[in-house]
Specification:
The structure holds two protein chains of two kinds.
Chain A (H helix, E strand, L loop, with lengths): L2 H23 L28 H5 L22 E2 L2 E2 L4 H13 L5 E3 L3 H4 L23 H7 L9 E4 L5 H15 L7 E4 L4 H7 L6 H18 L3 E2 L1 E4 L1 H5 L4 H21 L4 H4 L3 E7 L3 H22 L12 E5 L11 H15 L4 E3 L12 H17 L13 H24 L2 H6 L2 H18 L29 H15 L2 H17 L4 H9 L4 H12 L8
Parallel strand pairs in A: 1-10, 2-3, 3-4, 4-5, 5-6, 7-8, 8-9, 9-10
Chain B lengths: L6 E5 L8 H12 L3 E4 L6 H11 L3 E6 L4 H14 L6 E6 L6 H7 L3 E3 L5 H11 L2
Parallel strand pairs in B: 1-2, 1-3, 3-4, 4-5
Helix pairs in contact in B: 2-3
Classes of the chains: A alpha/beta, B alpha/beta.
Chain lengths: ~550, ~130
């Protein structure tokens, strides 16, 4: 069929076959929209991908612009890393959960830290009371980190750590634990989140002001490029932006805009982009709209490749590859009829696999109620294993490519994200756009709209605003963190403080202060300090003293 | 109901950074005609009680998702009483397991709104319980 004939047939369908049916019987809704508010055509055809250059915009796996995947073979060689985020209570308990997960076939670790650790407070700090060990494991000194990875060979597993403001300190501890296991820092593999901009935007665990925080991040880039070549120095995260209520386009745009800011800062201090860009990694959310999410992941790869080549002049192919971790959407989990969440997570995880993720965390069905139990975590992991081994989606690369709808949506995501990035450039970059409250306001508006849609039933959430069960019974077995954790953690910290060489600690803390004051790389003295069991709180307090603390504004 | 607008303080006690819910509720209550002040993140029970008294609010909404409610909420309630502001209606939201609800009710926190609650339900509760 020639193009002309095809167009004619299409027109006949739209104005005849389709329209006649709609005129007679109507449709379910007046209009159909994606989660980002794009009005959907009833049918996507060849005409919808006319403007897409197959060679330039889609390409092939493992080749620029990587729309179809960053590796030539994708899951045919190696499945994505199944990496469940875990951590609670003491290092002993979390170590036990880690070893359980590895026994169940998990292939990488992901550490959740408690809030005091994430904000640089020791467990005996007054502000930490009530929070120790609650949303993650409590880490005060190297001693806790040694326990956390006891009997886990750090040359064999890769470890992701969700830690931002104090990322350098936790990385330093990990390096020293590896040393003590006899593992060369050059061999350790993993990721620190280290993405402070999204903390100001969406997640809230900041300590220092933006400029000083960005300096810490470039210190880490520099240190790792010389000492830990297999370590991902940052995980630029859209996940929390989406959880805070953004839509999919905003998630994509704001994440890449954060990425641009980090790369620019490193380039500004004289680093060669190809020295650090290959170790940048990303972290996205997988929400409910399956095909829209797949398009988002594909668009992210293409857009980042273009940014790195055109904006930053990256030469190495690896510098242009957007490698990413995915977590299913916590905000999509419902407290009502919690078992339904297993199906939600399945759809979201499927989107991540079809979108070419490098690693994946699947949420547990009971997480709108409390931390997950061992049983619910196992089901979440099994969900991934089932998609990987039974569904067949991992057996051919980027199987949705060429779908008129998915390609059209991918292209649209690229264009719409670019518009946001242009706006952010007008502010002078992401740090400035955050300071002006622009990004926060955009997200809050979307969050509110989303809530309204649910309340007005424009958006159906099964078990919440439709198919509701009135006499639902509460789930009985929920996970509880032992309240004694706080006490035992304080005792452990005291013990460590008594045993360590306090003169050496003092000396190294002074060196950290000096480096911070002079603008030298603080990573080197931090590694020395943790080796002598200086605590996370002590190190963070020195930096608080020099850098000051960030005071958020409400927008 | 009196003709005075109901004034609400939405507060984030503890170190928890999740404030999507707090902000959505703040906006929803505003749209329902109430005056709303949001504290921002990481407030101690002292900060919250001080703000409540300064702003002379009728209601405090505590939002927490970190699991520290059993430690932080009693502190807020105790300080409110100490400051002579025990008549302020305190409600709460976030990840609060069912089995802790009675504990909070015994403290005097009657309204507990967990994920999935429509804003209207919260508005109705406030309007019924203030005055």
């Amino acid at each position: 069929m020639s193009d002309k004939e095809y167009k004619k047939k299409e027109k006949n369908w739209r104005e005849g076959t389709y329209k006649n049916t709609v005129d007679s019987y109507g449709e379910r809704k007046e209009e159909f929209k994606t989660d980002t508010g794009v009005k959907l055509d009833p049918l996507y055809t060849k005409s919808d991908i006319e403007d897409i250059d197959e060679k330039e915009d889609i390409g092939f796996p493992g080749e620029y612009p990587f729309t179809r995947g960053v590796y030539p073979t994708m899951y045919r060689s190696r499945l994505w890393t199944m990496r469940q985020y875990a951590g609670f209570g003491t290092a002993e308990e979390t170590n036990e959960r880690f070893r359980y997960l590895l026994d169940q076939g998990q292939t990488g670790l992901s550490v959740a830290f408690d809030l005091p650790t994430q904000i640089g407070y020791d467990s005996d700090n007054e502000l930490a009371q009530g929070e120790v060990g609650k949303v993650g494991v409590a880490i005060d000194t190297l001693a806790d980190m040694e326990t956390l990875f006891d009997q886990i060979p750090l040359d064999k597993v890769s470890t992701s750590m969700t830690i931002n403001a104090p990322a350098g300190v936790l990385l330093a501890m990990y390096i020293v634990v590896a040393e003590k296991q006899g593992v060369d820092p050059e061999e350790i593999a993993g990721t620190i989140q280290n993405d402070i901009l999204k903390e100001y935007i969406a997640r809230g665990t900041y300590i220092y002001p933006p400029e000083e925080s960005l300096k810490l991040i470039t210190d880490i880039f520099e240190y790792c490029s010389k000492n830990t070549p297999r370590w991902n120095t940052i995980s630029i995260s859209g996940y929390h932006i989406r959880e805070a209520g953004s839509d999919a386009v905003q998630e994509l745009a704001f994440t890449l805009a954060d990425g641009i800011e980090y790369v620019q800062k490193a380039v500004d201090i004289g680093m060669d982009v190809d020295d650090f860009a290959p170790r940048l990694s990303f972290f996205f959310n997988a929400q409910m709209n399956l095909l829209e999410e797949v398009a988002k992941f594909r668009a992210a790869r293409r857009l980042w490749a273009e940014i790195m080549e055109e904006r930053f002049g990256a030469k190495k192919e690896k510098s242009k590859m957007l490698r990413f971790h995915t977590q299913t959407a916590g905000a999509a989990l419902t407290a009502q009829q919690p078992m339904n969440n297993i199906m939600r997570v399945t759809l979201q995880a499927l989107a991540a696999a079809l979108g070419g993720t490098q690693s994946l965390h699947t949420n547990s069905y009971d997480e709108a109620l409390s931390l997950p139990t061992e049983e619910s975590v196992k089901i979440a992991l099994r969900t991934q294993q089932l998609i990987a081994h039974e569904s067949g989606v991992a057996d051919t690369i980027d199987p949705l490519a060429g779908s008129y709808y998915v390609e059209n949506m991918t292209d649209r995501f690229v264009k719409e994200a670019k518009e946001y990035i242009d706006k952010i450039d007008e502010f002078g970059g992401m740090a400035e756009a955050i300071e002006a409250g622009y990004v926060q306001r955009e997200i809050q508006d979307s969050a509110y709209k989303y809530q309204k849609k649910i309340e007005e039933k424009e958006r159906v959430v099964v078990g919440v605003n439709e198919f509701v069960e009135e006499d639902e019974k509460a789930k009985a077995d929920i996970m509880k963190v032992d309240e004694k954790v706080e006490q035992s953690q304080k005792e452990k910290l005291n013990e460590v403080k008594e045993k360590r060489d306090s003169e050496a600690v003092k000396k190294h803390l002074k060196e950290i202060r000096k480096a911070a004051e002079n603008g030298d790389n603080v990573m080197y003295p931090i590694v020395d300090a943790v080796r002598e069991y200086a605590s996370l709180g002590e190190i963070s307090n020195v930096l608080r003293d020099v850098y000051g603390e960030y005071e958020a504004q409400n927008f | 109901m009196s003709d005075k607008r109901i004034k609400v303080l939405i507060a984030k006690p503890g170190l928890d950074g999740h404030d999507r819910g707090a902000k959505v509720i703040a906006r929803g209550l505003k749209e329902a005609g109430m005056e709303v002040v949001y504290t921002g993140l990481r407030k101690t029970p002292d900060d919250i009680v001080r703000a409540a008294i300064q702003e002379d609010v009728d209601v405090i909404g505590l939002s927490i998702l970190s699991g520290a409610h059993k430690h932080l909420f009693p502190e807020v309630m105790k300080k409110l009483k100490e400051e002579g502001a025990g008549d302020v209606v305190v409600i709460s939201g976030g990840i609060i397991p069912e089995e802790d609800h009675q504990f909070l009710k015994d403290l005097g926190i009657e309204g507990i709104f967990t994920p999935g609650t429509p804003i209207k339900e919260i508005v109705d509760f406030i309007e019924e319980n203030v005055n």
